[in-house]
Design goal:
It is built from 6 helices and 8 strands; from the N terminus they run ββαααβββαβαββα. It has 180 residues and is α+β, with helices and mostly antiparallel strands. It has a single domain (8-176), classed as Aminopeptidase (3-Layer(aba) Sandwich), CATH 3.40.630.30. An 8-stranded mixed sheet has the order 1-2-3-4-5-6-8-7, sandwiched between helices. It is globular, with a radius of gyration of 15 Å. This is Probable acetyltransferase.
Length: 180
């Protein structure tokens, strides 16, 4: 993929920006939350070292590809991380959305997913975006379905059954332009 995204952009209520090392404290807190890791096959919080490695991967993805997961802020306060990344295992860009539990229920996940889809199918010219959701995570499934994703198949991911949802470009174009 030879496209890139701006280092930051405003999308509705959300400021979406490239993550920096200064985001580490928030990321450590985010991935230490039981509510966030409860759907993992082994629902154990990340150590600070694992969060630092996650942040380094996210920054490295931006360096290599010119896009990746954003740090997400609302009114100057961090609320999560998410966006699209290159998938090594599946066809299509991989969507992710991790919001702090204190920010759940405000519609931020749907806004973040729609912004990621606009970026993926717009400047990044993706043909397909996938979302991987654990069976035990109905809230994430509802967000994907609300944004036009359809269940495609069950896959094994890190030793656990995971639902793979997909949204191809032609379908996104129909739902993003109701006049079409």
């Amino acid at each position: 993929m030879n496209a890139s995204l701006p280092l930051s952009q405003r999308n509705g209520r959300l400021l979406l920006r490239r993550p920096t090392k200064a985001d580490l404290d928030f990321l450590v807190d985010l991935f230490s939350r039981h509510e966030l890791v409860a759907h993992r096959p082994d629902p154990v919080a990340d150590t600070p070292q694992q969060s630092a490695a996650r942040l380094a991967r996210d920054i490295g993805h931006w360096d290599r590809h010119g896009f990746g997961r954003w740090a997400v802020e609302v009114e100057g306060k961090p609320v999560g991380f998410g966006g699209v990344t290159v998938s090594a295992d599946f066809d299509g860009l991989n969507l992710s959305c991790h919001l702090h539990p204190q920010s759940w229920g405000h519609g931020y996940a749907t806004e973040l997913v729609r912004a990621a889809l606009d970026a993926a199918f717009g400047p990044l010219h993706a043909e397909r975006v996938i979302g991987l959701v654990r069976v035990a995570n109905p809230a994430s499934r509802r967000v994907l379905e609300k944004c036009g994703f359809a269940f495609e198949q069950e896959v094994m991911l890190h030793g656990a059954p995971t639902m793979l949802f997909a949204l191809p470009r032609p379908h996104w174009m129909r739902i993003s332009d109701p006049a079409a």
